[in-house]
Amino acid sequence: MSSPLVVVAKGGAEHKRWQYVQYLYLASFVLLVPVVLQPFEIGKMNRALVLSVAILAVNLVVGFNGMLALGHSAFMGVGAFVTASLVQDENWDFWMALPVVVMVGFVLGILVGLPALRVKGLYLALITIAQATVFPTLVNIDELGIAKRTGGPNGKGVSEEVIAPSYFEWLPGVDGARGGSAYRYWCIILILGITLLLVTNYIRSRPGRAVLAIRDNEAGAAVYGVNLPVVKTVNFAISAGLGSLAGLMWCLDKGFVAGQDFTFLLAVDLIIGLVIGGVGTLQGSLLGGLFVVWVNDLTKRITIPLGLYTLNGDGPLAKAIFGLILILFTFFAPGGIVSLAKSVQNKLIKVVPIRPDGTPAEDVDSFDPGMESDRAQSAMKLAILGPVLLTIGWLLMNVNNLIVGCVAFGLRFSILVTAPVAMLVGSNELKALLAGRRPESIKAQASMARLLGGLGFLFVLLYGLWLFKTQYSSR
Amino acid sequence: MDYVLLLQRIFDALFNSAIYSSLALALVIIFRATGLLNFAQGEMATFSGYIAFVFLVGPQPRLKGGGLAGLIPGVPLSVPLAVVGAVLAGMAVGAATERVLIRPLRNAPELSLVNVSIGLLLVINSLMAQWWGTGPRVFPALFPAGAGQNFNIFGARLRYSTIGVWALLFVVLVCLIFLLKRTRIGLAFRAVSINQTNSELVGIPVGRVLMYGWALAAGFGALAACISANSVLLEPNMMLRVLVYAFAAATLGGLDSPKGALVGGVIVGLSQTLIPAYVPFIGFELSVLPVLIAMTAVLLVRPAGLYGTKRVERV
Q: What is residue A256's predicted lDDT score, i.e. its pLDDT?
């Protein structure tokens, strides 16, 4: 499979169909999480999404502006403590606190960013890491009533619990058993969604393009009239505001804030998430947050007996595995999960851009009639592979072994990709056949692929719907 | 103002200064050669400290039940021999790190190098915690540091250990200067620090020279760990905080200046002790704050540090 299975024009019907499939998966993921997972798992998902927002904030500076600012755990901490103080001491609502927290983060970002951005590269990394290191001790200062506000070394709890108001009880998952965490999940999803939308638009806007230009060539950007200090500082401040927002979400999710939560190690977690997700991509930030939380959860269950000595994942080993993964990714996949996924996707589906005159930059179904095409055949293989892997995964599911469990999990989910791709390729080949660009011999294989892929996809959809329906109505 | 107390505080601070100076020197050596800040320097140093510990009392891992394996016989060496062994082992680790992890990334962006060193920090730190446990271990003092073992200068006590540590540091420094100024390999190292491409063109094996540089730096780190392991107690996170101070020291002095690292170490050590003592609202808990503020201020006024060379960028 060296050449892509199907080549589609950007914005064409096939491309749109593939995108709809992606949107559908995303939507069902969002909808299924609160109804299928256990409450404690929803809690972990919440933490992952909070980290995603924080990683997005780091990404804005490191990935999009090329500045090595690694101390966003401190901004998170500020946001969390301001929220806790406003909600607990002043009896504010979380939603009332939100704009204040973002503004506080923004102003703080300007204050830190103005001096910090004068230095470059590793020097900036130093300053920001210093900022992350010193933050946990800063909350303990007795002066200015800081310790009273932050609770000092004891941390600060928020006694007001976030419970769904009665008019939101229809939200999936928000019922008696998992109501609290599911409702918090929906709050976090709402904030995350709006943040993503705003950041996407910001990156595409004029200042956003200036930010990218600075990353790509600072001197060049200056020559083209980009005001370097202003753009850098404002970008840093926006990122700090986002970091504080993540802090607010942290507080909303956990209901408890302590200085020890926002150490250098949290900053390291953010960097790991950033690198493993994919530096400079929005999807990467999301994946990074999920990765940091769930892989950490996974490594905690590892135990390797070595004679007298047992390697236990529930201890320091988890950190070692993270460090190892970070090093491996830096060496072998510097673009993170996003680039890995892209390279897999490029094997299956290639999207070619459209020329200004409306024709695709590359012939979409380039194939001379008479030549042997293995596309239809590969599609058919793919269509058969999906259900087979699914069955294997299902059979392996009950084996009580961590690695087998992970493999089974992956196998079961592979049908999510294989089925729609097989369907797409099959229908595309049939269309090319109608246009007289394929030999007649592929017809059977192509329709087979289309049929099997379509059935597989239908199965996935129906299964998801069934899952949602049974879990939703079992309240 | 109590001048005896002030003098006493300065004497006490000088001991920590030696630790910061030697770790800052390690950072500076690597930065000069590769333009990389090694965030794992502290953990590499701590690891060497544990190696010295092993030479002294044996491997002593934590076992399944959480207890210690006290029965495994050690290799009881005398303290100086153990330190020498630890420094050599640390140098080997440093060289191996350069060869395996850093050299393949020679043309990679800064972020990749930062990532690798942070990953290394996590790996070494947690492997140490896994093997030796997180509890602190007692480490013998290199120089007599007990009660009464001190000089009395104007009523203030200057401990033998402080003098010994600085003497040791100076001996090592003289050796380093001799190595850099009088030997062929030192010449090669200086050439590589100045310009890698040109060094390669005149036939210097750049990779190998950088490896020696890393070994040298790791040796300084190991020395810092062995010096401090008695007063801070040997534990996996021992160097995390020290590393922050060492970073501050190296930045203050200029990241590419060994002299700056020494001076910076002394400044950081002094301000860490003196500022909390004389500025009322900064407790000892917060002693890291003035140091970091000083570091930031210096970076803003003189981005290259006190003795560093100014970077000129070519457009």
A: 83
- CA dist B251 and A118 (Å) reads 15
Q: Rounded distance, CA A100 to CA A248, Å? A: 10
Tracing tokens 């850093």 back to the chain, one arrives at B102
Q: Could you give the CA distance from residue B191 to residue A154 in angstroms, rounded to a whole number?
A: 54
Is residue A52 pLDDT above 90, yes or no?
Answer: yes
Residue A95 lies in a domain: yes
A323 lies in the same domain as A440: no
Residues B159-188: pLDDT tens digits?
788 888 888 888 888 888 888 888 888 899
Residues A406 and A323 in one domain: no
CA distances from A110 to A101, A105, A113, A238 (A): 14, 9, 5, 9
**C-alpha separations of A327 from A370, B18, B98, B99, B311 in Å:** 49, 32, 14, 14, 29
- Do A395 and A451 share a structural domain? yes
Q: What crossing angle do the helices spanning A179-204 and A206-216 adopt, rounded to 10°?
A: 80
Domain that holds residue A111: 37-298+311-341
Contact across the interface for B130 and A310, Cβ inside 8 Å = no
Domain ranges across chain B: 21-237
- Enumerate the residues of chain A whose CB falls inside 8 A of the CB of residue B122: 268, 319-320, 322-323, 326
Question: CB A246: neighbour CB atoms within 10 A?
Answer: 34
Q: What is the pLDDT of residues B68-91, one digit of tens each?
A: 555 555 556 677 888 888 899 999
Query: Residues 279 to 298 of A: which have CB under 8 A from any B CB?
Result: 279
Count of domains observed in chain A: 2
- Please tell me the total number of residues recorded for chain A in this structure: 475
> What's the whole-number average pLDDT of chain B?
82
pLDDT tens, position by position, B206-232: 888 989 989 988 998 898 888 888 777
Q: Is the pLDDT of residue A74 over 50?
A: yes
Whether A29 is in a domain gets the answer no
**Do both A160 and A285 map to the same domain?**
yes
**Residue A370 included in any domain:** no
* Interface contact B119-A324, CB threshold 8 A: yes
- The whole-number average pLDDT for the span A128-154 is 75
With contact defined as beta carbons under 8 Å apart, do B249 and B261 qualify?
yes
Contact A279 B114 (CB under 8 A): no
Which residue in B118, B126, B248 is closest to A271 by CB distance?
B118
How many CB pairs below 8 A link A and B? 139
The pLDDT tens digits for B243-281 are 888 888 888 888 888 888 889 999 888 888 888 777 776
Q: How many Å lie between the alpha carbon of A423 and the closest alpha carbon of chain B? A: 40
Domain match, A1 and A109 both: no
User: Same domain for A337 and A227?
Assistant: yes
Inter-chain contact B105–A319, Cβ cutoff 8 Å?
Answer: no
For A193, the token pair is 């969604």
B150 phi/psi in degrees, rounded to 5? -155, 165
Cβ contact A316–B251 (<8 Å): no
Half-sphere exposure of B261 (CA within 13 A, CB side): 26
Instruction: Mark out the alpha helices in chain B (DSSP H runs).
Output: 3-34, 41-57, 79-97, 110-132, 160-182, 184-194, 196-201, 206-232, 238-253, 258-278, 288-301
CB B233 within 8 A of CB B8: no
In a domain, A457, yes or no: yes
ipTM of model? 0.85
Integer Cα distance of A144 and A153 in angstroms: 16
Q: Are residues A170 and A255 part of one domain?
A: yes
One domain, residues A287 and A383: no
Q: Which of B34, B101, B122, B313 to mutate to test the interface with A (most CBs of A within 10 A)?
A: B122
pLDDT at A365 over 70: no
Confidence band for A160, pLDDT divided at 50, 70 and 90: low
Secondary structure (3-state) at B274: helix
Of A179-188, A297-306, A458-467, minimum mean pLDDT range: A297-306
Three-state DSSP class for B56?
helix
Identify the pLDDT of residue A1.
41
